[in-house]
Write a structure and sequence with these properties.
It is a single chain. This protein has 350 residues and is mostly beta strands. The chain folds into three domains: 82 residues, Sandwich (Immunoglobulin-like); 81 residues, Sandwich (Immunoglobulin-like), CATH 2.60.40; 151 residues, Galactose-binding domain-like (Jelly Rolls, Sandwich), CATH 2.60.120.260. It is 5% helix and 44% strand. The chain contains one helix and 28 strands. The strands form seven sheets. Strands 18, 20, 21, 23, 26 and 28 form a six-stranded antiparallel β-sheet that branches. It is elongated, with a radius of gyration of 31 Å. It starts with 7 loop residues before the first helix and ends with a strand.
């Protein structure tokens, strides 16, 4: 039986046709048919349909060229799912897609730029203090007000990620959130702010009424070297080894019982390593080694804010309506090296 020979030239041409066809299939023109929704705030999932989308390598929001991370796992040739970046700038703009072949194509989109706050420079304030709020979409804020009121705060400076406001000199509230409004809409902070002048002060820039130093270490007292609010803090140097307490006593006016107190708040600056401290109280002016207390983790070399529900530890003992607290302290067991810690804005808040 004769076999027909296939020309090598024919084979080469066939291979070229297949190769070109495959390349065309894999890198053909990309096109977006629809994007759902066509306007959204940061963090919202977007669903894009079209053709030639499986080769997309980057997605960028055109205002200030903000990239949008995405995963190939969720991509097909006809669909891509990704989220509006939290850092995207607000307003009408284009979403720019780029594929492996270097082709770019765009789709119009409107980012809803609601303001948001992720961190603050301080939670406690004296009247007139400036506090900086950090987040997104803060460059066009039109008003900042005490939540649920018409009391507005003066805006000192603002940009996309930060806004600085001047805190009020008077308010009857013991703590409050802030309402922040920009052209897109309003946002209420999760953070609460505490006017020092309305709190029960154990230590702020100085000892509260009737309070004094009750630490186990003699190297302790008021410091102007490091502080969070005002001009001073309380410090205690804890030599290596043994048990140490940094704290305050009041055996004259005491800490009067009130069912209205909700939180113990304070700032604490740690030592050179991570430590666990225990908050202890006493109905007398002293502490004992048998107390366990309420544990807190204190990271090194930074000021950390603590807002602890009073229900979590016995501030007034087992008979709160009759007992009067005389002392509160922070103790740790045997630091391996000598450490200095700082406390500021130690207060009880309704």
């Amino acid at each position: 039986m004769k076999r027909k020979l296939i020309s090598p030239i024919y084979l080469l041409l066939a291979a070229l046709v297949v190769t070109v066809a495959c390349k065309k299939s894999n890198s053909g023109p990309a096109h977006v048919n629809a994007i759902t929704p066509d306007s959204a705030a940061g963090g919202t999932a977007l669903y894009v349909t079209g053709t030639g989308l499986s080769n997309v390598t980057s997605i960028t929001f055109s205002n200030d060229s903000v990239p949008a991370p995405f995963s190939d796992v969720f991509n097909t040739d006809n669909a891509i799912i990704f989220r509006v970046p939290d850092t995207a700038f607000g307003g009408s703009q284009n979403i720019i897609f780029k594929n492996k072949g270097g082709q770019t194509f765009t789709v119009p989109f409107n980012v809803l730029a609601f303001p948001s706050v992720t961190s603050v420079s301080n939670y406690d304030f004296n009247g007139g203090d400036h506090i900086t709020l950090t987040g997104n979409n803060l460059e066009a804020v039109t008003s900042v007000a005490i939540h649920g009121t018409t009391t507005s705060l003066k805006i000192i400076a603002e940009d996309h990620h930060n806004i600085t406001v001047q805190m009020p000199s008077t308010t009857t509230l013991s703590r409050f959130k802030l309402d922040i409004t920009n052209p897109t809409g309003a946002y209420t902070t999760t953070q609460e702010f505490i006017p020092i002048y309305n709190a029960f002060q154990i230590f702020t820039d100085n000892y509260g009424t009737g309070f004094s130093n009750n630490s186990w270490t003699s190297v302790s007292g008021i410091s102007t070297d490091s502080f969070k609010t005002g001009n001073a803090s309380f410090y205690a140097t804890l030599p290596a080894g043994d048990w140490w307490v940094a704290g305050f006593a009041n055996n004259t006016t005491y800490i009067p019982y009130s069912p209205n107190y909700t939180y113990l708040v304070f700032w604490m600056h740690g030592g050179s390593a991570d430590y666990t401290f225990y908050i202890v109280t006493s109905s007398t002016t002293g502490f004992t080694n048998s107390q366990s207390g309420y544990a807190i983790d204190v990271p090194p070399n930074v000021w950390t804010y603590y807002k602890i529900p009073i229900a979590n530890f016995p501030l007034w003992g087992s008979n709160p309506t009759t007992a009067q607290n005389a002392a509160i302290g922070w103790w740790t067991i045997g630091p391996p090296v000598t450490e200095t810690i700082y406390l500021d804005d130690v207060m009880l808040v309704n």
